[in-house]
Amino acid sequence: MIPPILARSRGLRRLYGLLFAPLLEEYGLTQLEADILMFLANNPQWDTARDIAEFRHLAKSHVSAGIERLAARGYLERFTLPGNRKVIHLRLLPPSGPVVERGRELQDEYGRLLLDGLTEKEIALLQRLLDRIAENTDRAIALRERN
């Protein structure tokens, strides 16, 4: 049996894509490029292509290609830290501001749509359940990677 959360994940992704479609069209971005911008805006502590690929479960080659296009358009820049020229960090530039601002509004709308009609208590329970599922997933991955 496929757990209901997996069966529903396709619809979750589809709704997110539908919400972002006008933004993507307006700015001539792909969903991947918008996802990269939003990831960097929402997670400033994780600012490398590797971080994006790992946390978003994306192919590093796709992330790198998206970063290349975004850098060419002036939305982000690459830089290194003193003493470590191997790791390339990413920083959003001012032209990304309108995309990020609108993207955050869309992410807020997405959250409101998903949680519509749920009480605070139900939302807290949902969070605890999703945390437990994430813990189970991490544990199962760790076991299988060791074997």
Structure description:
- There is one protein chain.
- With 147 residues, the protein is mainly alpha-helical.
- 70% of the residues lie in helices and 10% in strands.
- The protein is built from 6 helices and 2 strands; from the N terminus they run ααααββαα.
- Strands 1-2 form a two-stranded antiparallel sheet.
- β1 (76-81) and β2 (84-92) form a beta hairpin.
- α1 (4-27) packs antiparallel against α5, α2 crosses α4 (60-72) and α3 crosses α4 (60-72).
- It is globular.
Helix content: over 70%
* Secondary structural class: mainly alpha
Give the total of beta strands. Answer: 2
**How many strands, what sense, and barrel or not for the largest sheet?**
2 strands, antiparallel
Radius of gyration: 18 Å
Topology order in helix (H) and strand (E) letters: HHHHEEHH
Q: List unreliable stretches of 5+ residues.
A: none
